[in-house]
Design goal:
Layout lengths: L1 H8 L1 E6 L20 E2 L3 E2 L1 H11 L3 E6 L4 H10 L10 E6 L13 H6 L2 H7 L3 E6 L3 E2 L3 H11 L3 E9 L7 E5 L5 E6 L13 E12 H12 L8 H12 L2 E5 L14 E2 L4 H10 L27 E3 L1 E2 L2 E2 L1 E3 L2 E2 L4 E3 L2 E3 L2 E2 L4 E2 L4 E7 L4 E2 L4 E7 L4 E2 L4 E2 L3 H7 L1 E2 L5 E3 L1 H10 L1
Parallel strand pairs: 1-4, 1-6, 4-5, 8-12, 14-19, 17-20, 18-21, 19-22, 20-23, 21-23, 22-24, 23-25, 24-26, 25-27, 25-29
Antiparallel strand pairs: 2-3, 6-11, 7-13, 8-11, 9-10, 9-11, 15-16, 28-29
Length: 419
């Protein structure tokens, strides 16, 4: 255990959290994708940060760029318990034109390059590069120890995916030792895993480096006019060709109950976001948010318990197979298979069915909402019916290929102005 602690104590997590996440459409009009709400209380970025925290890493930095205020405010409020006197750090690194006045962060690798002096100040031996926009639970210490034991130049976190679906990912061909022999971005014919012709290894966008090695590589890449300054496009293929790149299988470090499947989600579309939240209302969800051994840390707003009122036929405050967060008042509303975030208030005769309702939403009387995602702060007008007529829904709201309806306040105001 002494050796394990020493590895994490000399490591830092560098979280890339600057991407908009445009496939979430209006959900990222006001906030970057890692700041999007998830699971009733948390934000997406909390999963990467909590994994690092639970793995024993106490030095972290978050690179931000697109519409970062919501993310920065969340981190300042929910992750302000790091103490410098205990050699703990949580730095927020907005793009600030540090290298020149004509560009911000030009790519994922450049986001680290522009902050080399800050990483140097942490006095670490290892750096783990993380994407801040995926939902999963992982013990990074296992991956760090594997990286050190292998003497690798880079260790890449890998998902086992069906080969038929692997064309959507960056895919690695590996030999029997786990050494990566080629890295292919979204290949038409993905290479199979050794001994498993129906599966492939897909990159999770998680990289472990020795910091001195990465530092030199970043400085070299910064001087290359032909580089896009990106880990996946430039640095990783270079190491695969000329260095030692090893694959770490997520199966060996995924935090889960015995016998449970691995869980990793990219909630980068409205459909995927809706489904992953609704899945949490299952009897035994694959993602365990109740695990006290591996908690997901977040900013917890002080709220009273959820309240359910009225007990009359057709006007009963009730929630079935649902998750209802603190501060909610369910007044005469029927809620089924839905997830309600903090401070949602609903009124009499309303019905919510398979609804994901973000914080501070008010649902007025007799509204019937099915298969919806409702953005934060929305006021649903009395009698609104959504989820029964897709043609009518599409006139006013965003309707996905699966029939999920995204509702924002701007959409409702445009609708009201035209009716």
């Amino acid at each position: 255990m002494v050796e394990n602690r020493r590895v994490t104590r000399k490591a830092m997590a560098f979280v890339l959290a600057g991407g908009r996440g445009s496939r979430l459409h209006e959900l990222t009009d006001r906030r970057v994708k890692p700041a999007v709400y998830f699971g009733g209380k948390t934000r997406i970025i909390d999963f990467a940060l909590s994994n690092a925290m639970n793995s024993g890493i106490r030095k972290m930095a978050i690179a931000t760029q697109y519409k970062a205020h919501s993310l920065i405010r969340h981190v300042q409020r929910g992750w302000n318990f790091f103490r410098a006197e205990r050699n703990e750090f949580m730095d927020i690194l907005p793009a600030s034109q540090r290298r020149s006045e004509d560009h911000w962060y030009r790519g994922t690798a450049d986001a680290v390059t522009q902050n080399i002096d800050i990483v140097d100040s942490y006095d670490v031996d290892y750096i783990i590069i993380l994407a801040g926009d995926h939902i999963y639970k992982m013990d990074y210490e296992i991956m760090l120890r594997e990286h050190v034991a292998n003497g690798a130049d880079v260790t890449i976190g890998c998902l086992t995916v069906p080969r038929a679906e692997a064309s959507a990912f960056g895919v690695m061909a590996v030999d029997d030792t786990g050494r990566i022999t080629s890295f292919l971005e979204k290949p038409a014919d993905p290479p199979a895993m050794p001994g498993d012709p129906d599966s492939s290894l897909a990159s999770m966008g998680i990289y472990v480096f020795d910091w001195p090695f990465l530092r030199d590589l970043l400085l070299k890449d910064a001087e290359d006019p032909n580089s896009s300054h990106d880990f996946g496009n430039d640095l990783i293929p270079e190491i695969v060709k000329h260095g030692k790149a090893m694959a770490h299988r997520f199966d060996s470090s995924c935090v889960r109950a015995p016998g449970a499947p691995t869980y990793w989600k990219d909630v980068g579309t409205v459909d995927a976001f809706w489904q992953a939240n609704i899945d949490l209302t299952d009897f035994t969800p694959e993602l365990n948010l109740w695990d006290r051994e591996w908690p997901i840390w977040t900013y917890s707003e002080g709220t009273p318990p959820a309240k359910f009122i009225h007990d009359e036929k057709g006007r009963r405050g009730v929630a079935i197979s649902s998750m209802v967060s603190g501060g909610c008042v369910i007044s005469g509303t029927e809620i089924r298979n839905s997830l309600l975030f903090t401070q949602v208030h609903t009124n009499s005769y309303a019905v919510l069915d398979h609804a994901v309702v973000l914080p501070y939403v008010t649902v007025h009387r007799s509204a019937h909402l099915r298969n919806v995602v409702i953005d934060s702060g929305v006021v649903i007008p009395e009698g609104l019916i959504v989820g029964e007529d897709p043609v009518e829904d599409a006139k006013w709201f965003r309707v996905t290929d699966r029939g999920v309806v995204l509702i924002t306040q701007d959409m409702l105001e445009r609708r009201a102005a035209l009716l």
